[in-house]
From TrEMBL:
Pfam families: DUF4282. Keywords: Membrane, Transmembrane, Transmembrane helix. The chain crosses the membrane at residues 33-58, 65-90. This is DUF4282 domain-containing protein. The keyword Membrane applies.
Length: 126
């Protein structure tokens, strides 16, 4: 159940006000940008591994350089694939932590609303 947001009714400055007062967290979208930037770095690493393997194969003519370049290529691409998985897990961890924070905030607001309704029904002195 998504919490009802009061800020949509306040107008165009509501987003700016939510950001200033920490009513809205910007960490989720920022983590997505960091995720894509990290994937770009891993892609650069993978391209450099391919270039190193090709350079190693072309350095000397013969079967020995090809036999050395092939394991370098395979190992480098496996390391790049592992880096992609680790980076994804790292970013998902932070997204999960911030979603838990948002869910706890929604539960707290719902609890406060239920408490206010119960207090108004019973009366302040009851």
């Amino acid at each position: 159940m998504a919490p009802a947001r009061k800020s949509k009714a306040r107008g165009s400055g509501a987003l700016f006000w939510d950001l200033l007062t920490f009513d809205r967290l910007v960490t989720g979208p920022v983590i997505h940008l960091i995720y894509w930037a990290g994937l770009g770095v891993v892609a650069l690493f993978a391209f450099s591994v391919v270039g190193a393997a090709v350079g190693l194969a072309l350095k000397e003519r013969g079967v020995a350089s090809l036999l050395l370049a092939f394991p370098v290529l395979i190992a480098g691409l496996l390391v790049a694939a592992g880096m992609v998985l680790l980076w994804r897990a790292f970013c998902e961890f932070y997204v999960a932590v911030f979603r838990i924070s948002e869910d706890l905030r929604a539960l707290r607001q719902a609890n406060d609303a239920d408490h206010a309704v119960a207090t108004s029904v019973r009366g302040p002195g009851a």
